[in-house]
Fold this sequence. Notes:
Number of domains: 2
CATH architecture of the largest domain: 3-Layer(aba) Sandwich
Radius of gyration: 22 Å
Largest sheet: 7 strands, antiparallel
Amino acid sequence: MANLASNLNEEQLTILKDAALDFALSHGLVVRPPPTDDATTQQGGVINAPVALFPTPFPVNAFNNAVKIQPLYNQLVHDISQDDAFLKDIMESLSTVDDFVKRLYDLYLQVKKEGIAQPASLGVHRSDYIIHLNPGQDFSEAEIKQVELNTISVSFGSLSSLTGDLHRYLQATTGYFSDKIDISALPSSDSIESIASGLASAHWHYGSKTAKVMMVVQPGERNAFDQRWIEYNLLNKHGVVLIRKTLAEVADQGRLDPKTKALFIGDQEVSVAYYRSAYATTDYPTEKEWDGRLLAERSLAIKCPTIAYQLVGAKKVQQVLAAPGQLERFVKDPETVRQLRASFTGLYPLDHSPEGLAAYEAALKNSDELVMKPQREGGGNNIYGKDIQEALKTLTAEQRNAYILMDIIRPPITKNVLLRKGQLQRADVVSELGVYGIYLHDGHKVIRNDNGGHLLRTKGVESNEGGVAAGFAVIDSLLLV
């Protein structure tokens, strides 16, 4: 692929950098800086969100396919969440080796036993893909391969939209000092509006004009501005007020109406509990956070996601679905099965099954083309290459069940210029596409099942991980080719 920055001199790059920084700071394309000893910086300072200075080339057919199948994944998540037996088989096995999954599954069972107060459920999902290019294959023929399906606390819906706006602004004002970029090839993403619209749909379905949406957040959230854009859009476009609470604050300030099970934070009724936390062990440092989660799950508030949706996002579920006949348990239409399976890559268990034992032995011999994944969300948890063999040697046969193996996807390498903390870095990069989905079900029928925009994350080829918040990648946008 063409190197968009190859013919630009340092003066031109500086012009682009300065324009990008001003745009970012004036449009809220920002994050809070890492914690320092400078209290002033922590309280009021911001830095530009890490972004790519140029949009990254991406095959238009692969992009269109990812957008096309997102509603299929939205529906699949819901259908799996309704199959207690399927979840039981997977979660009981994982619960013996993963304490966090066990706590989540125990919470799920407890709420099911008590009786579900709110049959409606809202999903804001994101399916992540890397494009795979076979040797000798043209870039335009590359295919999407799913990395993971995220069902809780999907982030960067706002900052990804703004990054696309940034790239279109730079193209309109500077032309990127070349004729290589056609502005019509830079698709916009409506993920800010889509996520806010999904929350509004759930709020109005709840049926109380005075209730508010509650975003459950992490203490000291550095990525608050990505969240605030959704809050502002929800208010300005839909007239719905959003409040922000941590899990501990839900536990301290929350109560359930003894008759209706409506959730109140103080004297404020909550229509939707929208989680932008609660996906990692670090979100539950004490029992108080678990108490807050249980209170919300017991309540009449519509959950985004429900605990069942969160469990469906476990990597083990992704691996099981790839096995012969498992996807067909939930999807009866052969064409839908074909479309979904075409996006799968090689996925293997590490359990006691013959397939799991075979995968274990194969990985001990050659792990160069594999990635070993736990059930954790967020960046920094995967194990790659030779490190897999060392990790497998330290795990018992039972402990291995907490992981799956996945074939490494080999994407084409492009070149870009990354902008972090005001500094430019030329880099060889690979990119990961995320497609958002909005899904609302009332317990009897689907109310909405939509695409929700897209995200592109780009990272240096020396980085295995793709999490922007974890410091591995930058936010990017698409140049469709």
